[in-house]
Design goal:
It is a single chain. Helix content is 0%, strand content 52%. It has no helices and eleven strands. By secondary structure, it is mostly beta strands. Strands 2, 4, 5, 6, 9, 10 and 11 form a seven-stranded mixed sheet that branches. The protein has a four-stranded antiparallel sheet with strand order 1-3-8-7, with no helix packed on it.
């Protein structure tokens, strides 16, 4: 199983960023893909998850309206988009899949929000 994420991003406050997570080595449509982030000196925070089979998502209330998760089963790729960025969104973003009782993680994508 491999989860390969897109590269580092730098954005200005108020803009958006969309990150990708390319999956391989397991049946992509049949397993939820989760997104989480870790800000400087902070713990891991869950951003939500998607069922790639039907596109259904679950987003924590604090991120609803600002975080969107999507997936393209034809390319086995999941995406997370964060809108209205602020400095508090500066973090390393991770995708995650649980497959056969093992948690797999992408390598992480640094997002820096700075004016």
């Amino acid at each position: 199983v491999q989860l390969v994420q897109s590269g580092a991003e730098v954005r200005k406050p108020g803009t958006s960023v969309k990150l990708s997570c390319k999956a391989s080595g397991y049946p992509f449509p049949r397993h939820y893909v989760h997104w989480a982030r870790q800000g400087p000196g902070q713990g891991l925070k869950w951003l939500g998850r998607i069922d790639p089979e039907d596109g259904g998502t679950q987003i924590p209330q604090q991120f609803q309206g600002r975080v969107e998760i999507s997936a393209d089963a034809s390319t086995a790729t999941a995406y997370v988009e964060v809108r209205s960025l602020s400095s508090e969104d500066t973090a390393v973003y991770y995708c995650n899949v649980l497959y056969r009782r093992t948690n797999y993680w992408g390598q992480g994508t640094q997002v820096t929000v700075s004016s």
